[in-house]
Structures are given as structure tokens and as C-alpha cells.
Amino acid sequence: MRVGFIGLGSMGNAVSRNILRAGFDLVVHDVRAEAHEPLVAAGATAAATPRQVIDQCDVVGTMVFGPKEIEAVARGEEGLFAGDCNGKVWLDLTTSRPALMRELGAAFSELGGLPVDAPVTGSLRSAIRGDMIMFVGGTDEALNRARPVLDAIGETRRVGGHGNGYVAKLVNNQLWKIHAAAVGEAIVTAKLAGLEPDVWWDAMKGGAADSFVLHQDVPAVFAGHYDPSFRLALCLKDLDLIAELLDQTGTSADLTRATHERFREAARRYGEDAGDMSVCRVIEDDAGVELRVDRDWVAPWEVKHASDA
Cα-Cα-Cα-Cα dihedral of 163, 169, 172, 176, to 10°? Predict the structure, then answer.
């Protein structure tokens, strides 16, 4: 099996390295030619276009910014659909619009391909380690064909037919963003009331307030970098897609909409390239407190794969 991967940002780069570690021949592509270089040095082959990737590969993974970018990868003049799709698996890890991706999946199927949606949850840490969770949708045949690659890059959570993975990812991120915004209010309240941030953090874990955000993301606030490996630009893209889904379903979602506005405020103040946990910095700065904790924090991008440790 020859595997292709398109989209070599922080997460895509980590995923590609795990595919290489699993022993697959790997063909990579990114709109930034310089992004190919470290993976080529590690043993991958670079391709100039998505079409060249699918023409050479049995399974092609994609992980790009959002709907506009994934549509260009699929339908562009030198996109996936212009190549030999018959019998190929398209494994998409992008966070995107469910309706669009169901449409693209149907078009890929008409070309003889097998679409699988597998958007991911976790963090750059889990992408590097190879244990990130993927919300997977598709036919049994498609998943069976994709299984060796899925197993190389993380843990699968089957959520039904193609398209359901994108829905699962959006509602997952809906909760994640609410938790992140709420954490800022809780830490600052504790600090102002006399409970130091590190004491608060250790006390909250394991109780009713526990969450992935508490364990994995709060250290970025304590370290003061707010995790630039996941930018506010990505948060706002996800929240825009979540807002679309809320409108389509007619769901009452005051908490989500308030969270969306808090992230917009963070982007206005600190720029869209600031880290996602800058949503907590809004509350921190407004209160005039500092939430630094002097410990030996390991940043997400500094985590090592077991084989590199």
C-alpha cells in the first residue's frame, strides 16, 4: 500500500511522520513547497499537485485549513478528482462543513473511490505520539481499506456513514471551546478570591470540573504562551462552522454563541495567530492578574514520539 498525504501543517506533519514510522511508502504535498523538505529528508517523496498524489497512491489523506481549502484540493484543476480515483481511498482529517463533505464524498464515490471522513480531536501532542482520536465515518469496505493507515496515526471512533465524522468533530469542538472559555473565568475567580492557580489546578482534577482542557490546555496559560500550535484563526473557523450547524438545526445555543464572541474578542486583542488559550487571557488581562505558574512545562510542540525519545 502506498499512502499520500496532503496538508503539512503542524498536525499534518506529525501525522505524516507516523505514517512513515509504520513503514508505508509516503507521497506528500503542500501548497508551501518548503513544507515537503523535512519529510522528504525522512524518506517521503514530494508531489507537485494533489492529482499527482492520488495517481501514485492507494490511500490519500488530507488535512487542510477548512472548507475552501479542501474543496480546492478535491476539485481544483490539478485536484484529486482530476486524477485516477478508481478503487482509491480518500481519508480526510479536515474539520469542515458536513454538507459540503457529503457532497464531495458522493462525487468521489461516483469516480469509483471510497471516501472516509476522520477529523481528529486531541492536540499536537497526541498527533506527535500517534494516539489522537479520529471520528470516522464511511462504509465498511472503505474503513477496512483505510484501517492500516488509521491504525498508524491514532484511535478510531466509528460514528456511522460518511459525513457523520464532521458532525461529531464540530460538536466536540463546541464543547471544547466552551470549556476553554469557562476555564479562564474559573482560574481568575479563584486567583482573586485567594486560591493560587497551581493549587486550583491540582484540586480540580478528578472532580466534577475535570476535562481534557483542564489537563492538556491549562498548562499553556500557566506557561504564558497560550499554545500557538493551535491558532485563534482555527478556533474562529471552527466556531463559524459550528454556528452554521446550529442555524441549520435550529438549536438554542446561548453558551456557544457567547463563547464565539469571547474568541472573537481574543482575536481582536491579540491577533488571529495567537494561541487558542488566549481566550483565557482576555479574562486575565481584564482582571489585572497574572496566572503564571513556575513549573517545567513541556510545550505541545516539544513532545516526542516514543521512537524519538
Answer: -160
